[in-house]
Design goal:
374 residues, Peroxisomal Thiolase, Chain A, domain 1, two-stranded antiparallel ribbon, alpha+beta, 10 helices
Length: 374
Amino acid sequence: MTIQPGVRAYLTALGTAVPDHRFDQKRIADFMAKAMNLNSDGERRLRALYRSTRIKQRYSVLPDYGLTNGEFTFYPNTPGLEPFPTVQQRMAAYRQYAVPLAEKALKNCLADSAVKPAEVTHLITVSCTGMYAPGPDIELIDRLGLRSSVHRIAVNFMGCYGAFNGLKAAAALVKSDPDAKVLMVCVELCTLHFQKKDEEDHLLANALFADGAAAILMEGRVGEAEGKSALEIIDFACEVLPDGKDDMAWHINDFGFEMKLTSRVPDVLKTGLPAVLERITHAQGIAPEDVNLFAIHPGGRRILEVVEQVLGLTHEDNAAAYQTLSEYGNMSSGTILFVLKRLWELNHQSTGALIFASAFGPGLTAETALLKIV
């Protein structure tokens, strides 16, 4: 097995963070059933859906999902939650909560490295659940003590695969300047966008999505600290699967950002993902069988099952994704970094092991990366 030589890029530290409010999946189902004023048959279907997700708990910046009428802090304390929060109100909440959560993930990342804030040369922010300007990147400069001259890149509204575009930018920066030290943070507040509609895609989105943040440090060189490993970025590959363009989408409407997510998504992935794995490995002169570990975005239980089927994986091969799904739900762009962190911690001594990482989002798009533990 050979990996083609080239200029190096290393992921040297990774930090995650979740909000303070943690809710059992059953408790969230209680909130949804009441908020949507479902009849008994509708409530039975909703609870069956929530049980089938394999999600044990999720986190939110809002306490409301664990409260009852008369106690809400974000939603109106009225029947039907009317008037339902507007985009403006949701963006005000995003501005209040996103930066502190991103800061927490970034500090956790830096705490696992020898890099000081003043040494950071670039900051990349990734998010699809809110936006404003001057944005989170500007606020984070002050909160983290970064230099005012730090270069900034914002990756917005790309959905669950957004982290890969941030990683591509970070890798390109350190390959062009090995002295660069690039921070990237994904912060997503998906629970701000609850929709009280009973169509299948809205019910599914409400059952899966959660809040969280994850940050990485990318460098052009790796240190020699004993017992410390890094993840070398070997290559990226992506594939747009147009047959699924109507099955996964993310639109801004009057009362929040609305996710379109149909049950066809796993079937569309069947046709595209094996070809991407073949292409990314072939480009390095190796075979798909040479990949040792897999970090798959847990977009949902069915997606993980289909990935196992088409890539020939066992449930154990996918354990990091299932554990992340169970403990956190789907946190959009940052979720893949939670999976990667778990996989890296479990295998940090497996020098030379290859990791295939993948996430899926609107398009329908499959973004992938090949990494090596060094």
